[in-house]
Amino acid sequence: MNLTVRPMGPGALLVTGVDDPAGWALGLRALSVKGVIDVVPAAETVLVTGAVDALAEVRARIAEVRPVPAGVGGTLIEIAVRYDGADVEQVARQLGWSVDQLVDVHTSGEYTAAFCGFAPGFAYLTGLPDVLHLPRRASPRTRVPAGSVAIAGGYAAVYPRSSPGGWHLLGTAEVALFDPASDHPALVSPGDRVKFVAT
C-alpha cells in the first residue's frame, strides 16, 4: 500500500491508498490510540477523528497498522431472507437459472461489511459471488421498501428504510438495521460478517 495521510480540519485525518479500508480500520482500532474518537472506512479511504495529540500518534504509528483480513474478526450476523424481491425472477432468468439456484448462490457464503453510507444502517457488503456482479438497474426506483435485500456492482445490502434506489431486489428481511436509541445504532458495522439465510 502507498498510503497518503492528510488533515481534514483540526480534528481529523483522511488516509488514502488503502487496499482494504474496513480491514485497515480494524487494524488501526487494534492499536488503541488514546484520544481517537472514530475510525470510519469508506470505499477507498479511512477517516480518523480525534484529539490533536491522538492524530499525531496515528501519523507516527501508521506503519504499525496490520489490516484485519476480510472474514476475520467482527461479529457474525445472520439475516433471514424471504426471496420474494421484485427482481428475483428477472435476475434468475438473466443468469439462465431457476430462482432456487439464485438463492443457493446468494446464500452460499459469508459477506463482510466494507463500509456504511447512503442511509443510516446501510452497509455495503463485499463477498458477493462474481457471477452476481450485475450493474445497477438502468432505471432506479423512486421507492425501495425497507428491508429489501439487494445486489448491484460487487455489493450486496439490505435497505434499512424506504428510499429511492437502483439495485436489484432479491428478497425481504424483517430486521431492524438502525435504532438511533441504541448504544450501537447500526446492526451491521464495518468489519462485521453477514450470512443470509433463506426462509
Tell me briefly what this model is.
With 199 residues, the protein is α+β, with helices and mostly antiparallel strands. It is 18% helix and 32% strand. It has 2 domains: 4-64, Gyrase A, domain 2; 76-198, Cyclophilin, CATH 2.40.100.10.
Characterization of the model:
This protein has 199 residues and is of the alpha+beta class. It has two domains: 4-64, Gyrase A, domain 2 (2-Layer Sandwich); 76-198, Beta Barrel (Cyclophilin), CATH 2.40.100. It is 18% helix and 32% strand. The protein has four helices and 13 strands. It has a four-stranded antiparallel beta sheet, covered by helices on one side. Strands 5-13-6-7 form a four-stranded mixed beta sheet, with helices on one face. Strand 6 and strand 7 form a beta hairpin. The radius of gyration is 18 Å and the shape is elongated. The N and C termini lie far apart (41 Å). The mean pLDDT is 94.
Layout of secondary structure:
Layout: E1 4-7, E2 12-16, H1 21-30, E3 36-41, E4 45-50, H2 52-60, E5 76-81, H3 88-95, H4 99-106, E6 111-116, E7 123-126, E8 141-144, E9 148-152, E10 155-158, E11 163-165, E12 168-172, E13 193-198
Parallel strand pairs: 5-13
Antiparallel strand pairs: 1-2, 2-4, 3-4, 6-7, 6-13, 8-11, 9-10, 9-12
